[in-house]
Amino acid sequence: xxxxxxxxxxxxxxxxxxxxxxxACARRLFGERHYEAVSTTELAKESGVARGLIxxxxxxxxxxxxxxxxxxxxxxxxxxxxxxxxxIEQRVAGSLDxxxxxxxxxxxxxxxxxxxxxxxxxxxxxxxxxxxxxxxVDRMLETVGLNHITAGREELRAMIRSYSGxxxxxxxxxxxxRSLTREQVHTLLCGTLLTxxxxxxxxxxx
Amino acid sequence: xxxxxxxxxxxxxxxxxxxxxxxACARRLFGERHYEAVSTTELAKESGVARGLIxxxxxxxxxxxxxxxxxxxxxxxxxxxxxxxxxIEQRVAGSLDxxxxxxxxxxxxxxxxxxxxxxxxxxxxxxxxxxxxxxxVDRMLETVGLNHITAGREELRAMIRSYSGxxxxxxxxxxxxRSLTREQVHTLLCGTLLTxxxxxxxxxxx
DNA sequence: CCCACTGTTGACGGGTAGTCAATAGCGCCG
DNA sequence: CGGCGCTATTGACTACCCGTCAACAGTGGG
Lengths: 206, 206
Description:
The structure is a homodimer.
Chain A: H1 15-32, H2 40-47, H3 51-58, H4 61-74, H5 88-105, H6 107-114, H7 123-143, H8 153-177, H9 182-204
Helix pairs in contact in A: 1-2, 1-4, 2-3, 4-7, 5-9, 7-8, 8-9
The first copy, chain A, binds a DNA duplex through residues 6, 8-15, 18, 39-41, 49-53, 55-56, 59-61.
C-alpha cells in the first residue's frame, strides 16, 4: 500500500460547531424551498453529515425548522433609539422608514419569514409568528410613544397586530409583485397607522 | 350455508357522487388539521374507500387539497347587489357589514381558508389565494363604486390587496383571539379603507 | 340471466423520518 | 509517543406515506 496514513473519513467537531453548521445549511435550504420540499436526506448530504446526526442534534426535522424560523424572526432587532420628539406624524413616518430600510436590506430573510413556509395551519409555527408579532407591536407602540397608554390597551394592540397583517402584505406587493414602490408603501402604511391611532382607537376610547 | 346472497363488499357509485363524498371528507379533515398532518390513508379510511381511489379521482393528494381550497375560497360569493347610492362612507360601511356577516355565518370555512397563513411559498396555493384576492378586490371596488377608476388603478388594487391582509388578520383577532368585537373590527376596517381610498390614493394620484 | 363496462381494490416500488447499537475520531494521560 | 477511553458520528433498521397499475367485482343493459 502506498500509505497507511489516517485520512479520516469524517472530522469530529465540537457540538456547538456542528450544530451551527447544520443550522446554517438548514437556513439556506429552508430559505430557498418550503418545509416539505427539503428532505433530511438532502440536508444531511448538503451538510456533509449522516442523517441521524440531525436528529441527534435537533430531535426532529420540525424542531430544526422551528429553530431556523426563530432565528429569522428575532435577529432583525433594529435598535429603537428614542426618536421620541417631533409630532406623531413625524415619529410614525420615521419609524416606518426605518422599518422599510431594514426590510430592504434583509429582503430574502424577510420574505422567507413572512411566508410561513409550509401550507396549512401549523400551531408551532403560528405561535412563533405570534410571539414575533407581539414584539413588533411593542416596538411600534414604543416608537410612537404610546407604550404607556392604558385605555383600550389590548384593543389597540390587537388593531396593530391586524395592521401588521397589512404591512406584510404591502411589503409583498413592493418586493415580490413590484406593484407598489417603496415610497407608496410608506405612504400607505403611514396613512393607515395614523388613522388607527388618531381616529379609530381615539374615537373608540375617548 | 344460511344464504348465498350477495351483500356486496362495496357499493358502486357514480363518479360525481364518489368524488363529492371524498371531497366532503377531505374538506372536514383539512379543516381541522393541516396538510401534512392528514394522510391519504386516513382520508381513504374515513371515506370508507381504498387509498388508490383518491388518486384515481384527484390524481394527487396535493390536487385534492387544492380542490378543497378552491371550493372554500370561491363559495362565499356574497351577492353584490348595487347599494350604489349614499355617501362613500355609507357604501363602505354597508359593504363591510355584509362582509363580516358572511364571515360570521361561515366562520369555520373562513378560518380554514385564511389560516393557510401569510401564504406558504407553495406556488399552487399562492396562485389560488391570489385569484381569490383579485376577485375580492373587484367586489370591493365595485361595491364602493370605484370600479371605473383609471388613475393609479393598479396601485389602488395593490393597496386594497394589502388592505385585505389586514382584514384577514382582523377577523382572526375577532374570531380566534377574541381580542376585538365585531363592531370594533368594523370600525377599524371602515376607517382604514376610507383612509386608503380618500386620502392615500387620492393624494397619490390627484 | 349473463356479459361487458367501468368503478374499485390492494399489492408493489420508491421515498422519507426517527431510533439505536456499533464505530471511529481525537484528546489526554502515562 | 503510544494506546485508551470518551463521545461525536455513522448507517442499518423500522415504520409510515404516497403514486401506480393490473386485476377484480358491482351493476345496468341486452
